[in-house]
Amino acid sequence: MECLNADHPCRLQQAERVIPLGSTGDMAKTKVLIVEDYRPLAETLEYQLTRAGYEVFRATDGADALNQARLKLPDVVFLDVNLPVLSGVEVCKQLRAAPETRDTLILMLSALGEESDQVIGFAVGADDYVVKPVESYAVLLQRLKAHLRRREQAVDTGDCVTAAGVSVDRRRHRVEIDGQVIQVTKSEFRLLETLIRQPGRAFDRSELVDAALGEDTIVLERTIDVHIRSLRKKMGDRADLIETVRGIGYRFAEPASASDSR
Predict the structure, then answer these.
(1) Residue 107's domain is classified under what CATH number?
(2) Domain boundary among 120, 153, 186
């Protein structure tokens, strides 16, 4: 498949970047996970989405897709039907079954354009079905914008999660503790959001680097400890909600544990 924009090759090298510990972030970008094993299509789609202002991640098989979806909690998943390890249909079923991804926008990609194939895609929970090859990325991006606009207009509490007095609002990029706004960096926000959305789950440091800082960030795993210390300090008497899991990493306290500690 040829890249639609001849001025930009399909095979793009991600620019390496370092997020300074004290940097602050703007409103969080919409996160998109591309699950596609055909590299030219994946790279072209990644370029088009990145240029349009989305934060993009990629997976090449079904198992990796589920793992990245649990870690990064994307807003949108472009999901190929024919994938190695696990099919796109199975991935879609599991995403819809998991509480943390059940409301994720899923657009299926497939060369199979028959009505019966599309019916299967919608039956397992896809929001849209895109037939390959993609004839117009401009149209595809407009379709995505339309889906996101409808989601935004709907009453949706998925952008805000609250536990034990701590509230994380992705849309407004704001953290509140007992109703009081606290100032956090972009990295601290992403760490807290990753942890609070899956209370009780132990994340190791490498997972938190990928989930909260991004695969293209050059940091040591121990940098996570620095972010956690800073975040705990800002959380005051709620700092104990971020628990250290010895020999592994960190987790957000489960509700029962959190209530016992209050």
Answers:
(1) 3.40.50.2300
(2) 153
Q: Which amino acid is at 40?
A: P
- Indicate whether 184 and 252 sit together in one domain: yes
Q: Where are the beta strands (DSSP E) in the chain?
A: 31-35, 55-59, 76-80, 105-110, 128-131, 160-163, 166-169, 174-177, 180-182, 203-204, 242-245, 249-252
Whether a cis peptide bond, with omega within 30° of 0, leads into 133 is: yes
**Are 108 and 128 contacting, i.e. CB atoms less than 8 angstroms apart?**
yes
Query: Is pLDDT of 41 > 80?
Result: yes
Measured CA to CA, the distance from residue 90 to residue 124 in angstroms comes to 8
- Determine the Cα–Cα distance for residues 117 and 4; give it in Å rounded to an integer: 27
- Tokens representing 40? 């030219």
What integer pLDDT is reported at residue 249 of this predicted model?
A: 93
Residue keyed to tokens 């620019």: 15
Write down the pTM of the prediction: 0.56
Structure tokens that stand for 51 in this block? 């240029």
How many residues in total does the chain contain?
262
